[in-house]
Amino acid sequence: MTKKLAALTLSTALVALASPVLAQNQGDWTVGIGAGYLEPKSDNGTLAGLDAEVDSDVSAIFTVEYFVRDNLGIELLAATPFSHEVTLGGSVDAGSLKHLPPTLSLNYHFDTGTAWKPYVGAGINYTIFFDESSALGDLELDNSVGLALQAGLDYAITEQGAVRLNVRWFDIDSDVSLDGADIGEAEIDPWLIGVSYVHRF
Fold this sequence. Notes:
The chain is mainly beta and about 200 residues long. Helix content is about 10%, strand content about 65%. The protein is elongated.
């Protein structure tokens, strides 16, 4: 059993060593394209005296990252618009909205010497709300600025390309008005789970 375990461990190590390694050096650029599932937290605040709920959505996501030092990059996240339905009190259809989440982050990529490269990052998110619509009146959400955190894992499939899985959290709080009157604050604070292909130039 011990010999089999040792052989399996050695085989796994040899496969990892034989796989392409995605080096990220000072001056490199990477571009990523993929899909992201955005899931707001379960309790989205109180609007007009009722508990608010914002539903989830899937959208295309894009990243551009420039490495200011080896393994240290400045990244911009962009996406096609996320669309959400807003429900009050568990049953009242309060309307719908769209948003864009441009986010600027500083990421550190850990050099494992293998095809696997984890990373962590932190930055600032600016959420732009638009196309708000409601049968109850003129619905409006203010744009939001907040902290953004992320962690991810790249797996090199070529010398210049990798598959990326990452998870992000955004601090998104927005003042909400209906027909010009303040009705509360939406506390969205979503998680974004993304899968992308990343190419290094």
